[in-house]
Amino acid sequence: MTPKLLTTLRDYSAESLRADLWAGVTVAMVALPLSLAIAIASGAGPETGLVTAIVAGFLISALGGSRVQIGGPTGAFIVVVAGVIDQHGFSGLVTATFMAGLILLAAGALRAGRLIRYVPEPVINGFTIGIAAIIALSQLKDLLGISAPMPADALEKLAALWDARGEVAAWPLGIGIATIALITLFRRLAPAWPGLIVAVALTSGAVALFDLPVETLGDRFGTLPRGLPMPALPDLSPGTLRELLPSALIIAFLAGVESLLSAMVADRMTGYRHRSGAELLAQGAANLGSSLFGGLPATGAIARTATNIRAGGRTPVAGLVHALTILLAMLIAAPLASALAMPALAGLLLLTAWNMSEPQHWRAHATQGHLSDRGLLAMTLVLTIFTDLTIAIGMGVSVGLALRLRRREVPPADWTPPDR
User: Fold this and answer.
1) Is residue 32 pLDDT above 70, yes or no?
2) For this chain's UniProt record, which GO biological process terms are given (predicted)?
3) In the predicted structure, residue 116 carries a pLDDT above the cut 80
4) Which of 60, 124, 130, 281 could make an SS bond with 108 (beta carbons 3.0 to 4.6 A apart)?
């Protein structure tokens, strides 16, 4: 349960500090535009993404069980967050995030991190691809420059996009495509550099320089605040807690699963081993902290963690530097964020959704393994897109565990007929 920060500081050196400083600043430049885009796609104010990256990112690195984990808002939460805000308002989301933090603290204290091995992999793959599809669909409006309102339902949104096809504008589409192309180019030519913020800054700069007819973040949300808000407790009335418990459980489940998956990926990349109990406790503290400052749900971010490793991050100090760098940027350069082009952020999220779906594994998903696993993945995917993430995860885990019991040939229960 001991945080990795405490153990890594015992033999910390000046060389490690230099490496962590560079890695922390690098990953902060990646996290900045992503945090803004994720918050906007979730239906929240852009500043909430930065608040989450600062508060939750700091706590995850300070208290977590991984040497190189980077925490903050992630794309996996977009669907859940948008749904909670739509049904219960932003105050409801804050309460659900607070409850999820308590659930994660309990899970960490009970050492429930090892239970992740019982979640069927096809379920994780299914809802991840489903979430990626929903994110991509939600960004087409800004990418195409369409102003017509969009419904939440996937099928209805497709129909609305088709009906609004006459509104497609060339400049927003060009800015979005250029952003995607630049990000891809930077990843291939300089993968250790923060290509995300450079690409978004270049295309947004072109919009400002040539006064192009493209909506910016400032046009929609105004100027971002400088600094963090004052902390405050959310609504914890019994009726509100009962109403938001299902949402809190889903947030806790996603935060726990994604953080532990990210930690395992980091272990494979570095050769170290994370402490699952400490990681869950850190996720609980991070979500509590984020909710107190009016932020979003948070978890370990696989892509940002990998960026940290590739940039040379060695200890949790890199994660602390990442959070403090974003705070410094918010204090000094918040007004500059108002010039970011909405199609550029949409292009960034479209590429994030594509990478999140891991297209390199699609063929294996469709052709390898048990037929029942492929069916389980397809079922979870379809339920995620067309129904509700709660239903998708509940059904997927239930059916997956039943399939596992069947494969192990567990004998059926010897029921005694009731004497009635």
Assistant:
1) yes
2) transmembrane transport
3) no
4) 281
